[in-house]
Design a protein that fits this description.
By secondary structure, the protein is of the alpha/beta class. Helix content is 38%, strand content 19%. It has a six-stranded mixed β-sheet. A six-stranded parallel β-sheet has the order 9-8-7-10-11-12, with helices on both faces. It is globular. Pathway: Metabolic intermediate biosynthesis; chorismate biosynthesis; chorismate from D-erythrose 4-phosphate and phosphoenolpyruvate: step 4/7; Aromatic compound metabolism; 3,4-dihydroxybenzoate biosynthesis; 3-dehydroquinate from D-quinate (NAD(+) route). GO terms for molecular function: NADP binding; shikimate 3-dehydrogenase (NADP+) activity. One of its GO terms (biological process) is aromatic amino acid family biosynthetic process.
């Protein structure tokens, strides 16, 4: 096992100033006796967009970064710039972790594992016959793979871009079998028949307040899961809880994807219970 005593990592994304990821990684690094520095590379703050990714990757390599986490809106745009993909990242078609080593850029996806772990812990015994997912972007692709792996029978995917929802459904059906995923068209009627609702869009973040579905479509029998974690209680979750829905916030996914990313960057096993406790303390 490689044990880099110095780790320099970063997060590339838009509007990420409230991210808990740097503190999560650095605290765990301190606990493990590593010199662990984690930097935010915020496209909004730098007045850049995804077109800056080639330059940012090259700069990270030149400055000897160990690796980078990748978030909205870069999880798919980063792929053509990488040398290799892990099997998970290739299957999902999205990358949230890039390891920079021996002159190579290797893309991984720890979002899928992160969501699955959170789902198993937070909603272990919910009905999974029909589930509605809002969003078909990079995070949505990872969550959809996790949901079908966790036994969801049919996933209806809604996205502002119909072709993106259809492309994700096609990818999922190749992996999991025909008919397991469909691009959704009638949100009200589909949600009325669903067991659960998952939001994988950025709607609900501090910089994008609001709800991904109209509040009147929620009902108490529906379970509701969220991947946004700043704020931890989004408008969607607040309204769902008020109706008596079982809910899952974005905290567990944030922690468990970070646990795996920490291990990829440092070569050292992370203490997931300590990182979870750390996250809860930061959000207490």
């Amino acid at each position: 096992m490689t044990d880099h005593r110095v780790v320099l990592a970063g997060l590339i994304g838009a509007g990420i100033q409230a991210s808990r990821t740097p503190a999560l990684h650095e605290h765990e690094g301190d606990a493990q006796g590593l010199r662990y520095l984690y930097r935010l590379i915020d496209l909004d703050a730098l007045q850049l967009d995804v077109n800056a990714l080639p330059d940012l990757l090259m700069a990270a390599e030149r400055m000897d970064f160990t690796g980078l986490n990748i978030t909205f809106p870069c999880k798919q745009a980063i792929i053509p710039l990488l040398d290799e993909l892990s099997p998970e990242a290739r299957g999902i078609g999205a990358v949230n972790t890039v390891v920079l080593k021996d002159g190579k850029r290797v893309g991984h996806n720890t979002d899928c594992l992160g969501f699955a772990e959170g789902f198993r812990r937070g909603l272990p015994d919910v009905a999974r016959e029909r589930v509605v997912q809002m969003g078909a972007g990079g995070a949505g692709a990872a969550v959809a793979h996790a949901l079908l792996s966790e036994g969801v029978q049919q996933l209806s995917i809604f996205d502002v871009d119909d072709s993106r929802a259809q492309a994700l459904a096609n990818n999922l059906n190749q992996h999991f079998g025909t008919g397991r995923a469909v691009a959704g068209h009638e949100l009200a009627s589909t949600l009325a028949r669903a067991d659960g609702l998952v939001n994988t869009t950025p709607m609900g973040m501090q910089k994008l307040p609001g709800m991904p579905v109209p509040v009147e479509l929620l009902r108490s029998a529906l379970w509701v899961a969220e991947i946004v974690y700043f704020p931890l209680e989004t408008e969607l979750l607040r309204n769902a809880r008020a109706l008596g829905c079982r809910t899952l916030d974005g905290g567990n996914m944030a922690v468990f994807q970070a646990v795996k990313a920490f291990e990829l960057f440092s070569g050292v096993a992370a203490d997931s219970a300590r990182m979870l406790a750390d996250f809860q303390r930061m959000n207490g």
